[in-house]
Amino acid sequence: MSTNKKELRAVYKNLRAALSLDEIEEKSLNITNHLIELPIWNKTYFHVFLPIEEQKEINTEYILHLLSGKDKEIVISRSDFETRNMSHFLLTDNTKIKKNEYNIPEPVNGLSVPPETIEVVFVPLLAFDVLGNRVGYGKGFYDKFLSGCKPETIKIGLSFFEAESKIEDVSELDIKLDYCVMPEKIYRF
Predict the structure, then answer these.
(1) Is the dihedral angle over the CA atoms 37, 157, 42, 69 positive or is it negative?
(2) Residues 107-147: pLDDT tens digits?
(3) Residue 136 counted as an annotated binding residue
(4) Residue 52 marked ligand-binding
């Protein structure tokens, strides 16, 4: 099996498409339950992606509940597809969320948060390998965003599926994960 990003993207999009909504809920809840084991709870600013339901992404609502239960500051983003930059906003009771043209739920407004404030980032992905490399949708938003965070920012991938042994075409612009949490276990890199 080849393990270049383009082929992995196709394989994992198909695997995800085959999941039922019940499986997504169960796996998302199991992933959230594993997060409690990570040494991240002394941090304050947590960045969470809001899932693209049409892409059968992990339901991060469970993570939002966990974070708000622990009184954490939750940061969500809006993407600019022309510049491939993300703007970050504090999630509050007043935050209005609206889906963009790619069905990504995004904040319409809010208090801006600079990337260097963010201490923990939950990173969406399609696939990852045992070395901590990830494959996303290929637009580079997260690598660009993570490169603007402090080096000690904790990067946690969330995956429904097991690690690949090695992603072949990793570039030096790709930012590695510190952890990847699956429904069954946690990888530490």
Answers:
(1) negative
(2) 998 999 999 999 999 999 999 999 999 999 888 899 999 99
(3) yes
(4) yes
**160 labelled ligand-binding:** no
* In the predicted structure, residue 19 carries a pLDDT above the cut 90: yes
- The whole-angstrom separation of Cα 70 and Cα 179 is 20
Those residues whose C-beta lies under 8 Å from the C-beta of residue 113, and which sit 6 or more positions away, are 45, 73, 75, 88, 89, 90
- How does pLDDT run across 98-111, given as a tens digit for each residue? 999 889 999 998 99
Identity at 176, one-letter amino acid code: K
Q: Is 27 assigned to a binding site?
A: no
178, two tokens: 């510190």
| CATH code assigned to 5-188 | 3.40.50.10420
DSSP 165: S
